[in-house]
Write a structure and sequence with these properties.
The strands form five sheets. Strands 1-7-3-4 form a four-stranded antiparallel β-sheet, with no helix packed on it. Strands 9-13-12-11 form a four-stranded mixed β-sheet, with no helix packed on it. Strands 2-6-5 form a three-stranded antiparallel β-sheet, with no helix packed on it. The chain has helices at residues 9-16, 26-44, 217-233, 259-265; strands spanning 52-58, 64-66, 72-80, 83-85, 98-101, 114-118, 129-135, 138-145, 153-155, 163-171, 179-180, 189-193, 196-199, 207-214, 241-244, 248-251. It folds into three domains: 9-48 and 217-268, no CATH class; 52-135; 138-214, no CATH class. It is α+β, with helices and mostly antiparallel strands.
């Protein structure tokens, strides 16, 4: 599964009412998931939804810059005309040289966030502002208790959409980071697959804080529906309508992305700017 896929094979087979067991259709369904996900991301004008780093080069004619990717998880650095611009707090805005990031929405879809620059003067120089930041849909600091009895594992709560990528686990009491391993975790380690986190018996009962990327539920649903539509369309490739005994005519939707899917993804579109 690609990190850019907006749903997975198990979810698509369940949506189509197909058996969960491996079948000859699995490769086709997997390819359709990838194609549907890419089509949706292209329609949104967004290269990805999961947390990743971005570097933007912006012209410095404005003191307020709306970042192209959201939600913003953190700003690593800002430079203006080659000078490092520090972060400042609200109490220091009156006479300061620095930047502040306006807060984002708590739940998806969210909206582009503004970075405000203070103590600089607008100029028409190209690409003289460089912003290095991390953005993507993520849950951070979700605290749960490791079960006392086997299986010593817990599932991410994923309140806004299906779990998609691991961003780390820390001990909620000490703040110490646990080490990710592929399987059979020992004390101070964890393993994760599909949003289920496994721990060692030595860590049973401990409070842990999970951070992970997720796909917003309406976009995951849009990918399901689009992939399912393309799968069923194979039964009538190139056919726009057919008549049944001269009594009834069935018309097929020939649009690239159907209206219900477009309605689901519309709130997440990035407007060029």
């Amino acid at each position: 599964m690609s990190p850019y896929d907006l749903t997975n094979l198990a979810a698509l087979k369940a949506w189509l009412g197909l058996p969960a067991a491996p079948s000859a259709n699995d490769a086709t369904l997997g390819a359709l998931i990838g194609a549907a996900s890419r089509a949706i991301l292209a329609a949104l004008s967004r290269p990805g939804l999961l947390p990743q780093n971005y570097v933007e080069l912006r012209n410095g004619e404005r003191r307020t810059l709306y970042l192209r990717h959201w939600p913003v998880l953190g700003v690593n650095s800002v430079t203006w005309n080659g000078l490092i611009v520090p972060e400042i707090d609200a109490a220091s805005l009156a006479a300061a040289f620095g930047w502040t990031l306006r807060p984002g929405d708590l739940a998806p879809p969210g909206a582009p966030q503004a970075l405000d620059l203070f103590g600089v003067w607008p100029s028409h120089r190209r690409d003289n502002v460089v912003i290095d930041y991390q953005a993507g849909y993520a849950v951070r600091g979700e605290t749960q208790a490791v079960p006392l009895a086997a299986p010593i594992e817990l599932a991410a709560l994923a309140p806004y959409g299906p779990w998609a990528s691991d961003l780390g686990v820390v001990d909620a009491a000490s703040g110490a980071a646990l080490t990710a391993v592929a399987s059979a975790p020992a004390a101070g380690q964890y393993a994760v697959s599909g949003g289920v986190y496994a721990f060692a018996a030595a860590d049973a009962g401990a409070a842990v804080s999970l951070s992970y990327g997720y796909v917003p539920q309406d976009l995951a649903q849009a990918a399901l529906e689009l992939a399912a539509e393309r799968f069923r369309a194979a039964e009538h490739i190139g056919v726009r309508s057919k008549s049944l005994g001269g009594q009834e005519t069935i018309a097929f939707d020939a649009s690239a992305i159907s209206a219900p899917v477009l309605a689901l993804i519309q709130p997440y579109r990035r407007v060029a700017g």
